[in-house]
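lol so apparently i was supposed to do this last week
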Amino acid sequence: MRKAFEPKVSIVTGAASGIGRAIAAELVARGSRVVVADLDADGATRAAAELGPLASAATLDVADAAAVTALVQRVTAEHGRLDVMVNNAGIAIGGLLEELDERHWDKALAVNLRGVINGVTAAYEVMRAQGSGHILNTASLAGLIPAPAMLPYTTTKHAVVGLSTALRAEAASQGVRVSVLCPGFVDTPLLDDVYAAPASFGGSSVRARVRLLQPRFLTPEQTAKRAVDGLAANKAVIPVGFLAHLTWRTLRYAPPVA
Ligand code: NAD
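anyway here it is w/ nicotinamide-adenine-dinucleotide bound
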């Protein structure tokens, strides 16, 4: 029989805005205390206040491993446990290879990949010791298929899918569940960066191309509900949106390459 999903203590990174904020709200609605952790201190404070008494704010740069460990340890010490760690903070950095320099790559790797590794490492230590817990990492449809002219984003999101699915196997024996979220386009401020990023990708026509790929954007709330339902059902990969579903089904059922 499946264990009931009744989280009491959760941390969500990048929770001041968009998908992270909606996941925090969904976890609060299911009765969990939630730490709204974000680089944007004011945004985190505002979001926590809006989410009510079960939510509290923390300022956090996920790229800072020591800070992530300190937050996870503090929350666990305060509440005696950590049930859910959502490594969601991410940034959209795009461009063709010739347009990118070291700073673009370092930034994308630091936030989108190191940030997730930092959260996973800190949470796994605590959850392994308590013999239970859920880790949810936010990747993207761009973690399953390439997003054109979004090289650093595609690279880091593919790595997050790889990290999550590989860790899932070893974590299961420790009572820790690992899932990865792969949404298509979601209506959040991050999309402004997608539109702004690669001039070479067509400038203002990027919006039109995105709309062509996915005519109707997902809402953060839809995405969050699917994410938390997927977590409760212990899904390895949680695709959200038609394209992501199609892609994941196709990949999953693809015969092994000879
Ligand atoms: P968003 O911009 O609304 O929210 C991202 C949040 O992360 C912001 O509050 C920001 O302050 C925070 N953040 C950025 N860098 C940080 C850092 N170093 N440490 C801590 N917090 C930091 O964007 P969103 O669309 O909600 O994105 C959330 C996640 O979902 C990202 O990982 C993104 O790649 C992923 N995603 C988004 C879409 C989409 O279409 N919006 C699709 C698939 C995946």
